[in-house]
């Protein structure tokens, strides 16, 4: 059991590397026809901050793990920090659950509203617009 077995419906694990895990929501509809592919809701679980440059230094064991939800490349939640990978996995599952049950108001994450897109996302996630 990986800890990701409890992901809510619609969430899938796209990758699970030692230093980074990527979870995505409904990749079957974010295909540029139904919904824009860059808007695929994505959860990143990373050891140290996500904005590290590729090929940079390896994080130390003491560095935190971070979980963050992105709705688009520049639109997302603030990162949540965890002391261990196991706690970060639990935090990622919790964040996915909060997205799925409507606790996260993704409309509030947008500085420039996109009403038509957000109405369609409401329909997809079963929320009232």
Structural class: alpha+beta
Q: Number of helical runs?
A: 2
CA distance, first residue to last residue: 36 Å
Number of separate domains: 1
Bin the strand percentage.
15-25%
Low-confidence stretches: none
In short:
It contains two helices and six strands.
Comma- or semicolon-separated keywords:
129 residues; alpha+beta; 6-stranded antiparallel β-sheet; globular
Topology:
Blueprint: E1 11-16, E2 20-25, E3 42-47, E4 65-72, E5 75-76, E6 80-82, H1 85-100, H2 115-125
Antiparallel strand pairs: 1-2, 2-3, 3-4, 4-5, 4-6
Give an account of the 3D structure.
This protein is α+β, with helices and mostly antiparallel strands and 129 residues long. The protein has one domain (11-125). The protein is built from two helices and six strands; from the N terminus they run ββββββαα. The chain has helices spanning 85-100, 115-125; strands at 11-16, 20-25, 42-47, 65-72, 75-76, 80-82. Strands 1, 2, 3, 4, 5 and 6 form a six-stranded antiparallel sheet that branches. A hairpin with a 2-residue loop joins β4 and β5 (75-76). The longest helix has 16 residues, at 85-100.
């Amino acid at each position: 059991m990986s800890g990701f077995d409890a992901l809510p419906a619609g969430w899938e694990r796209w990758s699970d590397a030692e230093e980074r895990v990527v979870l995505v929501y409904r990749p079957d509809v974010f295909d540029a026809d139904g919904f824009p592919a860059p808007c695929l809701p994505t959860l990143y679980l990373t050891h140290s901050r996500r904005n590290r440059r590729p090929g940079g230094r390896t994080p130390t064991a003491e560095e935190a793990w971070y979980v963050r939800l992105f709705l688009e490349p520049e639109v997302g939640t603030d990162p949540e920090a965890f002391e261990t990978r196991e706690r970060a996995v639990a935090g990622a599952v919790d964040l996915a659950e909060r997205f799925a049950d409507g606790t996260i108001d993704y409309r509030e994450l947008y500085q420039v509203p996109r009403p038509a897109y957000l109405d369609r996302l409401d329909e997809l996630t079963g929320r009232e617009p």
